[in-house]
Amino acid sequence: MSKEIVVSGIRSTGFLHLGNYFGAMRNYVKMQEDYNCYFFVADYHSLTTHPDPKDLRGNVYRVVAENIAAGLDPDKVALYAQSDLPEIPELYLMLNMLAYKGELEKVPTFKDKVRQQPENVNAGLLTYPVLMTADILIHKAVKVPVGKDQEQHIEMARNFAGRFNGRYGELFPEPQPFNFGDTLVKVPSLDGAGKMSKSEHGNATLYLADEDDAIRKKVMKAKTDSGPTEHNSTMPEYIQNVFQLMNLVSTSEITESYRAAYNGCTIRYGDMKKQLAEDMVNFIRPIREKAVALQADETKMMAVLRHGAEKARESASRTISEARKLIGINYY
Ligand code: TRP
Q: Whose CA is nearest to atom 10 of ligand 1?
């Protein structure tokens, strides 16, 4: 039986953090065994915010290196840069003729951008979901691993796919958002509230690129208090968060011993955080070191991207010729 097709795009701006690791990246790594996966760096999407041209190559290498360091195998999946597939902008252009200004203006992520960067409300921002649709449909993907914030974009992709099929003939399956449901782990922020995310103040977020000392410093600053005064009392959320982080990187014996100390009111948060900091350092260090080494190996990075582009173009060129034919663009 042929494997189901999976596509997902990775943003090329910003550093990957622990939330990305336990959210998206670990899902990618699990999926590479059982699905036919296409994972790409969304460098065209990043142009909507006008990045400095001299940053692009470094950003793309970094994202590719970090994903490989986290366990993605470029021999198992097609790992490529979006801009290496000219078929994507071609399909994007075709789909733009089926996407309406009114529906695009209503998209919440677009409205957010209008608020954030009122001086740069370009057409690329407006049609961001159309480019995403092209990314997905170019390989006829049926599953798209994304976070909650992207599900509306996938719904639009289903609409555009249906509209294309209705107008020109059946070509695209309708893609579904995909996550591992229960196995999705929450990675809490270090400031006691909410999830770890690309925050303004980098102190509440652990990045895969953080040096050992930066990791220690951030963990030691995590919010705690003077400790429980009654046996078996309920944990405040910020203490639950420290335990949750420990669950991710420490052994269960260690976590359980601190839980018992909490219940018996003998816990010392300073010691707990020192332990967590060391376990965190041991968890992040090998990923960081592998990523740094890969990123510095330009020959390797180029080979990975070239190889990924070749694999991805096979399926992209097939789809685009079918789309051209259905639309009527076949003159000789
Ligand atoms: N918009 C996605 C994000 O911000 C990245 C992305 C671009 C993507 N194209 C995609 C995700 C296609 C899934 C499928 O995270």
A: 9
Tell me which of 1.10.240.10, 3.40.50.1000, 3.40.50.300, 1.20.1090.10 is the CATH number of domain 202-291.
1.10.240.10
Domain 5-178+297-327 CATH (choose: 3.40.190.10, 3.40.50.620, 3.40.30.10, 1.20.210.10):
3.40.50.620
User: pLDDT tens across 143-189, in order?
Assistant: 999 888 899 999 999 999 999 999 999 999 999 999 766 566 789 99
Does residue 30 carry a catalytic annotation? no
Instruction: Indicate the DSSP class of residue 202.
Output: G
Beta-strand runs (E) in 132-190: 143-145, 176-178
Cα separation, 166 vs 104, in Å, equals 20
CB 133 within 8 A of CB 156: yes
Residue in 113, 143, 218, 273 annotated catalytic: 113
Q: Show Cβ contacts of residue 185 under 8 Å, excluding neighbours closer than 6 positions.
A: 22, 23, 248
The per-residue pLDDT for 184 is: 64
Longest dimension (CA), the chain: 83
3-state DSSP call for residue 142?
coil
pLDDT tens, residue by residue, 100-129: 999 999 999 999 999 999 999 999 999 999
What is residue 236's predicted lDDT score, i.e. its pLDDT? Answer: 95
The whole-number pLDDT of residue 305 equals: 98
Q: Provide the pLDDT for residue 205.
A: 94
CA atoms of 159 and 156, how far apart (whole Å): 5
- 218 catalytic? Reply is no
Asked whether the predicted pLDDT for residue 297 surpasses 60, the reply is yes
* Cβ of 210 below 6 Å from ligand 1: no
Compute the chain's Rg from CA coordinates.
22
Atom of ligand 1 nearest to the CA of 145: 13
Pick from 5, 8, 47 the residue to mutate for probing ligand 1's pocket: most ligand atoms within 8 Å of its CB.
8
User: For residue 134, how many C-alpha atoms fall within 13 Å in the half-sphere facing its CB?
Assistant: 27
